[in-house]
Write a structure and sequence with these properties.
By secondary structure, the chain is an alpha+beta fold. Helix content is about 35%, strand content about 20%.
Length: about 240
Amino acid sequence: MSNDDAAKTLARWRNQGWLTRIKRGVYAAVPLEADTTAQAIEDAWILIPKLFEPAYVGGWSAAEHWDLTEQIFKDIYVYTSRPVAKRKQTYHNISFVVTHIPVKYQFGTKPVWKKEIKILVSDPTRTIVDILADPKAGGGIQHTVDCLREYFKSTHFNESQLIEYATRLGNGAVFKRLGFLASQLLGEEAPLIHACLSQLTKGNAKLDPSQKADKLVTKWRLFIPINLQIGSEIQ
């Protein structure tokens, strides 16, 4: 049918309660058992391809998916190659935190299928690299440390992949944060430490750019907050 007829049909179905409008041109069917159109979305991830593609679920949302955290976040974290005017966006009472990322950096993802819709999610290693690149994406540096600890303890831990992804991303601060935290969690003699040291870039970075940090760890060219709690080495 024509665009005109399609728009009228969709509007009629919406008025009759069969559809709910997510945004212009994006609708969702309302389940027969739903009391209101507000119940139309059973799994918010199915909206991501239509709203943000090319995109992937990352940050704290991917950490939840891969069991790197038990913390539950209300907002869904998305990386997209579309222009991002607003970092926080809400559709159908579902909140998304959106970060722009060039297409060439959309690597290290795995497909997840929901209602025959394919959604990309960062794999466990890419999730760690992303939250080390921007601790806000991990829910802050303390939660990022907790996720990294779980990653090191899990079967997901892949040292060579960590180095490969961090190198491809090209963010020197990732190696500084990863090396420092790995030295605390795995011990100074862990092979990963030497790999990170060989990749150090010039200049100093902050462990968490959003926090005041006046203690410089010269080995890692990294300013860290005094109140950071890392805990003991992983046995």
